[in-house]
Specification:
It is a single chain. This protein is mostly beta strands. It folds into 2 domains: about 1-75, Glycoprotein, Type 4 Pilin, CATH 3.30.700.30; about 85-160, OB fold (Dihydrolipoamide Acetyltransferase, E2P) (Beta Barrel). It is built from no helices and 18 strands. The strands form 3 sheets. Strands 1-2-3-4-5-6-7-8 form an 8-stranded antiparallel beta barrel. Strands 10-11-18-16-13 form a 5-stranded antiparallel beta sheet, with no helix packed on it. The two termini are about 20 Å apart.
């Protein structure tokens, strides 16, 4: 599974795979191996000799009783990006902001056909411009942001009807 995780405003690219001996997680290219076990509402995580208690509440992660604001986007697994049925019975994809920031450019327009990887919106966050791209080919059904608007992490940016 691959996704983008934003913790305290810092984006990270994550890849996690479960195997017979536990999990393998890549965080921005660095690899970690460990074990995860669920205990009620909490996850018990062991990475090497370190053990952590992790629980999630809304858009926050509590790790060993320290609170971290988090946002997850761009989830991909063996079945591809997360989606839902659109009004025409096709697949509808919600493209969300990976982090808070200011919309500096909107390239997408309703009805526009886009290719996977094509830039939909440019978001300025932490003095850097980040391109939010189409996760697959499709047609833009809705653009939910305007240039100059400040948005939060995980805010809906564009809705695509996938081909």
């Amino acid at each position: 599974m691959r996704f983008r995780l934003v913790v305290d405003g810092e984006p990270h690219e994550i890849e996690a795979n479960r195997g017979a001996k536990g999990i393998r997680v890549r965080v921005d290219g660095a690899e970690y191996r460990g074990q995860v076990r669920r205990s009620g509402e909490m996850f018990l995580v062991r990475i090497g000799p370190k053990r952590h208690r992790v629980r999630f509440e809304a858009r926050e992660a509590w790790i060993d009783e320290a609170r971290y604001p988090v946002a997850i986007s761009g989830i991909q697994d063996e079945r591809g990006p997360r989606s839902e049925a659109g009004p025409s019975g096709g697949t509808s994809l919600q493209v969300r902001a990976p982090m808070p920031g200011r919309v500096v450019r909107v390239f997408a327009m309703a009805g526009m056909r886009v290719k996977r990887g094509q830039t939909l919106v440019v978001l300025e966050a932490m003095k850097m411009q980040n391109e939010i791209s189409a996760p697959r080919d499709g047609t833009v059904r809705e653009v939910a942001v305007v240039e100059g608007e400040s948005i939060t992490a995980d805010r809906l940016v564009v809705v695509l009807d996938a081909r």
